[in-house]
């Protein structure tokens, strides 16, 4: 695009798994990116990006970058490889795929990918070939399965409220979301609303960065949100603070919930939420006194055994408060769902001869060690499973298997990449063309690559097209260019303005979705009723109700491992991405002074955190930011040479109440100092 004295400024979009999906301007000097800045024209990003991405070019040109295909020469995990050519690499890849398929069948191939790059083309690039091969299929549960399913049970196919609606709210509730860390551009609306006198309330088990800037704080127990939300509805009921006429118009099935809430004693709500009755009372009164309330719901609160129910209950509270009708300053946002497209145009399930087995991402450890018939080939791209999947010591055991052939397509030498038999170099987003939409806002864009691929790196798309070619597949998807695939997909997208025209080879302007839940669209397009009482089954109650925790209420485990552990995001990491910036660092753990005293821990000392699944070392931070009984480990730091375990060695393969998501925030642990301070 713009060019000045040989320097070009090119528009691009942050590919990371972050709700903000920022518009970026890359400054390019003779084919080298020299800076990345926020695009001032992007309606949501408004000219700034986070510090992780301002320094992303360090990663692009880092010595950690994988730039050539390589074959393992050392032990698995040792990270010793020799360089080979792409021809050889594709030959080996294709031969292995064929061998495994012929000997064990397609399902012995386990693909694993997630969200290193959120571009529609590159995120989904492997599916066509995997379907053609009849590989096992992964259930993509690792992030938001429970939250999404919980919301969809009561409010199907409706986009979230646009974040800018919060600007007109009088009360903003950040419920299980650390806005200052993981959704930084939402803060502009918080700041604007507060200028007018609005209040920010945060509901979180610990005092994260957002709590520190908030007006009000409710320290809920991990997993206690359902009880808090339902307790608030009970109080509104008992205090006759519910607008029955509105409920009649906008919702169905409230009777069943009302009956249940009236019949359930108060001490159940307080015990399960960890909030006293007076606290729930104040919360409900606050909500009732602020008709213009905006609830920003995080996904983090759903990563426990009651997570789906928590989201169901919070959504129900929103409906009881009348936050669904799209009026000014009222809203509820979990995920924007701003554009919906036909994913079969990206994934081509029709290439599958017959439906193959599903494997839950949260059960990777099990899949690699004990699944029958066994997995013989493991292929990972866009993902760092050894760091991000739960119960990592079992995952590691699986990756160590001599009879497992592992292919990893990566940008940098991650802990997973070290276990590859065949390691392939991946481009970064600056080297790819792709389409991006955000899940925290309503913008869309297609952007070109900014620079040529470094070394011999290939995009995910190119890798799978080349491999399909090597295997002799000629089905249409394998003959497509990026623009062919984009054109076909874009034609199915709902939310694009009627005058939108996709021109191959050209970047688009920033496009705002028309799928917005504002007052007129609620009436005109969705006419949605919120259903409190839905079809349930044995495992899924039909109305939101109280649930006991799983691991946290296991008496045996509580007696052996008395501390609760949650593992929320770190400001300078994006899940495990950027781990290469912290070699030999394993992160900190927040511990309350009372626990520090009990366990003989001083601020700054190295501690071992352990349970029946594994152990990991971290540096203790003694602080009242957490409560007694709860320790908090921010960030998925990479395993190091001195500590080959990571934080997920402590988390379990148990899954959430609905949609089988992982339970990253529900581990019982013990702690002990290890360096004698
Ligand atoms: N800097 C940074 N940004 C990120 C990420 C990152 O790793 N680092 N990760 C990205 C990804 S993949 C995602 S999915 C999003 C994550 O975003 P979300 O999961 O939507 O939200 P987080 O901001 O991670 O919120 C986690 C907060 O939830 C709290 N929490 C944990 N359990 C509970 C609970 O039971 N109840 C309540 N009320 N709160 C609870 C944690 O203490 C933490 O403060 O962020 C994205 N953005
Ligand atoms: N304990 C604990 N564990 C968690 C979480 C938690 O809160 N606590 N959060 C969970 C959540 S919400 C999520 S979404 C998952 C995320 O898990 P992942 O999707 O694995 O995310 P990242 O850790 O960011 O790793 C992405 C990897 O993809 C690579 N990559 C980036 N772009 C490309 C590309 O174009 N091609 C290829 N081939 N590779 C690329 C990056 O270099 C990086 O190593 O982690 C989950 N794990
Ligand atoms: S990580 Fe999030 S805040 Fe940072 S640039 Fe990317 S989209 Fe924006
Ligand atoms: Mo995520």
Q: Brief description of this entry?
A:
The chain is of the alpha/beta class.
What is the helical fraction, as a range of percent? 25-40%
Category from helices, strands and their pairing: alpha/beta
Report the CATH C-level class of the largest domain. Answer: Alpha Beta
Which geometry do the CA atoms define? globular
Number of domains: 3
Rg, Cα atoms, Å = 25 Å
Number of strands: 28
Helices, strands, pairings?
Layout: E1 2-4, E2 7-13, E3 23-29, E4 32-38, H1 51-54, H2 56-60, E5 70-72, E6 81-83, H3 86-104, E7 109-113, H4 120-123, H5 127-133, E8 137-139, H6 145-154, E9 171-175, H7 179-182, H8 187-195, E10 199-203, H9 209-212, E11 216-218, H10 225-238, H11 244-250, E12 251-252, H12 254-263, H13 266-273, H14 277-288, E13 293-297, H15 307-320, E14 331-333, H16 344-347, E15 358-360, H17 364-369, E16 377-381, H18 385-388, H19 392-399, E17 405-410, E18 422-425, E19 434-437, E20 443-447, H20 460-470, H21 476-479, H22 482-490, E21 511-512, H23 519-526, E22 530-531, H24 555-560, E23 563-566, E24 588-591, H25 593-598, E25 606-610, E26 615-622, E27 630-632, E28 667-673
Parallel strand pairs: 7-16, 8-15, 9-10, 9-13, 10-11, 12-22, 13-14, 16-17, 17-18, 23-27, 24-26
Antiparallel strand pairs: 1-2, 2-3, 3-4, 5-6, 5-18, 19-20, 20-21, 23-28, 25-26, 25-28
This protein binds ligand MGD (2 copies), iron/sulfur cluster and molybdenum atom.
The site of molybdenum atom has 2 residues, from loops.
Would you write up a description of this structure?
The protein has 677 residues and is of the alpha/beta class. The protein folds into three domains: 70-143 and 339-512, 3-Layer(aba) Sandwich (Rossmann fold); 146-334, Dimethylsulfoxide Reductase, domain 2 (3-Layer(aba) Sandwich); 551-673, Barwin-like endoglucanases, CATH 2.40.40. The strands form seven sheets. A six-stranded mixed beta sheet has the order 6-5-18-17-16-7, with helices on one face. Helix 6 (145-154) packs parallel to helix 15 and helix 10 (225-238) packs parallel to helix 15 (307-320). The longest helix has 19 residues, at 86-104. It is globular, with a radius of gyration of 25 Å. One ligand MGD is lined by residues 17, 114-117, 122, 142-143, 381-384, 387-388, 409-412, 414, 426, 460, 567-569, 574-577, 636, 647-648, 651, 664. Molybdenum atom binds next to loops.
